[in-house]
What does this fold into?
Amino acid sequence: MKTDDLISMLATGVTPVERHVAAKGFTRALTFGAMGALAIVILGYGVRQDIATLVHAPLFWAKLAWPTCLAVAALAAVVRLGRPGRAVGGWWAGLATPVALVWLAALLMLWLAPPGTREHLLMGRTWRSCSFNIALISLPAFAAELWAARALAPTRLRLTGAVAGLIAGTTGALAYSLRCPEMSVPFWATWYLVGMSIPTAAGALLGPTLLRW
Amino acid sequence: MTRETHAGPLRPVEERLRTLLVRSLEGDAASYRAFLQDLTGHLRALLRKRLYCLPHDIEDVVQEILLAVHNGRHTWRPDEPLTAWINAIARYKLTDHLRARSRREALQEPLDEEAELFAASDTEPADARRDVHKLLDQLPDRQRLPIVHVKLQGLSVEETSRLTGLSESAVKVGVHRGLRALAMKIRGIS
It folds into this structure.
């Protein structure tokens, strides 16, 4: 086919382009991912018994705030990665800041804690299953976020896959907070981060295949 | 910011293409055709330099980039520099193309200078080696028929819907997905 023919093919029957594709796509993906994650937690694991008293605990809100901040930065980053030629810029710092703050708090708490209790602060009672559960709960969100990223035009596929995976990870972490009995900052700083890293790594791995266009 | 430094011959080109693309995104076919034709000249000139050892690939890559620009046109926003957007797409498609030819690694030279894209134009076409019509035949009917009727024969979505028995939204989705599938197929065989 001559290029001129391709041009007339592309220019024939064009319709106005839909606006806010990224916003709509990720809103849908977040909704679907959150509903999927909640369904797995509520039906599969069961919500914590003391959830009613928990909502009055500032520490519980801190536990939710951390993945939420991460999710906001990851969303901003993925939308930029999905637009060719657009720099992510300051949002990389937005991703690093919540992690750095939680680590700082965790180290401080470990340092201040009596030596005998440190291991319990870090490992809790559920460290073996925590990260795996978060990754499992984030599965529907993982599919949805990568689907939403596909609707854009990412040119750095591995990075875009990773950040989309991170959004799924934060969704999984938030939903799992309703179930997780651990209330120690060093525990979240470690095992929640590992849990969120699993979909992130999976996104980096699958990005070049799934996001090509 | 950096755009301000490319005064001279680039600004008018960027401004003209930007105006055309803004109108295209509102659904103006004539502007879109002019935009694509203009862009093709610039891409061809750029790729002549980048692919000077693979002259037969130039037209193929031009077509890949045009399809990519079309399929990704909803990701450009008028408040962003058009040059950076097109350059990122061109770089992505060129890298992809060269990766497919990874045996000749010496040619993997990325498009680094944004200034180069609009610096020259070349409207003299060579023939692409692939036949998009043949690739079109490999698409499933629900994508192929909408493209043939709407994009090649110039029928309206409504007429195509009546002719094929597909709903109007299925026709629109078929065109959209079909062009994306076509871009994948073009890449696959290059």
Observations:
- The first helix of chain B runs from residue 10 to 25.
- Residues 27 and 71 of chain B are 14 Å apart (CA to CA).
